[in-house]
Write a structure and sequence with these properties.
Elements lengths: L4 E6 L6 H8 L5 E5 L1 H9 L4 H7 L2 E3 L16 E9 L1 H8 L6 H11 L4 E5 L6 E4 L5 E4 L3 H10 L5 E3 L3 H21 L1
Parallel strand pairs: 1-2, 1-4, 2-3, 4-5, 5-8
Antiparallel strand pairs: 6-7
Helix pairs in contact: 4-5, 4-6
The structure holds flavin mononucleotide.
Length: 185
């Protein structure tokens, strides 16, 4: 079998979407998954889907049953990353809802005991974020949003990261573990 790959999902969160995309574009053996909102939002932040497709396979949310999630059952993916994750997607995942491509990926990764690394957009009661065209704005996540982040962190096979630096460190460490496992097999 081919070496397992990394599945990375982006949702429609403008918060740190540029930093997440810029980092994942430096990685090899990644498949990118986009929620419907992410597909719209990445364009607003100046990214071109055609150019991203030249670097990696991109799966869009077009089917009701999310067929690519079957790949988790074949050992095709060693890790699932969801970064950035909107309040909406986190809330659904916390409730166990799997009614979109990205929420299905999270659910099926868990059911296949594949580790997930999640970077939720709601990590503090007050945050500065970047709107399209680079404008800096303040955002004040509600109690329910912050509770969602906390609850998701208690799910099995799930690690929450709270900054871009933590995300990069966590993904890099996981890739090193996977590479080491491959070398000793
Ligand atoms: C420019 C732009 C930026 C957005 N940024 C955020 C964000 O940082 N966090 C968030 O929770 N939602 C944000 N949203 C709203 C989500 O895209 C919206 O809730 C969407 O339904 C989420 O769908 P998804 O979770 O399936 O990606 C943003 C929307 C737009 C248009």
């Amino acid at each position: 079998m081919n070496k397992p790959r990394l599945a990375w999902a982006i949702t429609g969160s403008g918060h740190y979407i540029e930093e997440c995309l810029n980092f994942l574009l430096t990685l090899d053996a990644v498949d990118l998954y986009l929620s419907q909102a992410a597909e719209e939002v990445i364009k607003m932040y100046g990214f071109n889907l055609t150019e991203i497709r030249e670097k990696m396979p991109v799966y869009r949310d077009k089917a009701a049953s999310s067929p690519p999630v079957g790949l988790f059952y074949t050992g095709y993916y060693h890790t699932f990353v969801m970064a950035p994750a909107t309040s909406n997607t986190v809330a659904k995942c916390v409730l166990g809802i799997a009614d979109s491509l990205v929420t299905n990926l999270y659910s099926q990764a868990g059911k296949c005991r594949v580790p997930s690394i999640v970077y939720p957009c709601d990590i503090a009661p007050e945050m500065e974020t970047t709107a399209p065209k680079g404008k800096r704005v303040m955002v004040y996540p509600r109690q329910i949003d912050l509770e969602g982040t906390e609850k998701l962190g208690m799910f099995e096979y799930t690690s929450i990261v709270k900054s871009v630096d933590e995300l990069i460190a966590s993904v890099t460490a996981r890739l090193a573990v996977v590479a080491n496992e491959g070398a000793t097999e």
